[in-house]
Amino acid sequence: MRKLDETDIAILACIFKDPCITNKAIASHVDLAPSSCLERIKRLQNEGIILGARSQFNYTLLGGHIQAMVAVRLASHNRDTVAQFQQQLVGQKEVLSVFHMGGENDFLLHVCVPDALHLRDFIFTQVTGRDEVVHVETTLIYDHVTSNSLPYFG
C-alpha cells in the first residue's frame, strides 16, 4: 500500500465525518480543484481504502426502541461453522453488526428490535435455537455514540 499524504487523509476525514458530503465541498475543504479531488477519491476507492459510505439513522424513529449486544459462544470453531453463523446472522433484519471475536465469546451481535418480546423471540429463534450455540448473554444498550474522527495510524 502506498503512503497516504495529508490531502488523502483530509479527504478521508471529510468522508468519514459526513458520508453524504459532496465532492465540491471536499475539494473546497482540502483546497483542490473538484476534478483533482474526484481523481483522488476514485484512487482511494480503487485501492480499497474507501469501501463505501454509510449513513446514520435514528432507530427509535424507525420503531427500534431497544438495542442490545448479544455475546455468543459456539461449541465448534471450525471455519465453516463460524462463517455460516456469521453470514446467517448478518442477514437478519434485527442485526446491525456482527463481530467475530477472540476471547471468552466468539461473536458479539449488535441488534435493534421494537420491544422486549421481540428481543426474546429473536434470541430464542435466531440464536439459542442453533445447535452450534452453547452460551448467550444479552446486554441492553442505554445509549450509543460514534466518533466522527477518522482513525489513522500512518
TrEMBL record:
- Matching PROSITE patterns: HTH_ASNC_2
Tell me where in this chain the HTH asnC-type domain is found.
4-66
A single Gene Ontology CC annotation of this entry is: cytosol
Q: Give GO MF terms, alphabetically.
A: sequence-specific DNA binding
Classification via InterPro entries: ArsR-like_HTH, AsnC-type_HTH_dom, Dimeric_a/b-barrel, Tscrpt_reg_AsnC-like, Tscrpt_reg_AsnC/Lrp_C, WH-like_DNA-bd_sf, WH_DNA-bd_sf
> Entry's Gene3D superfamilies?
3.30.70.920, Winged helix-like DNA-binding domain superfamily/Winged helix DNA-binding domain
Query: What SMART domains does its record include?
Result: HTH_ASNC
The alphabetical list of record keywords is: DNA-binding, Transcription, Transcription regulation
What is an annotated GO biological process for this record, any one? Answer: regulation of DNA-templated transcription
Residues in a coiled coil are none
- Name of the protein: ArsR family transcriptional regulator
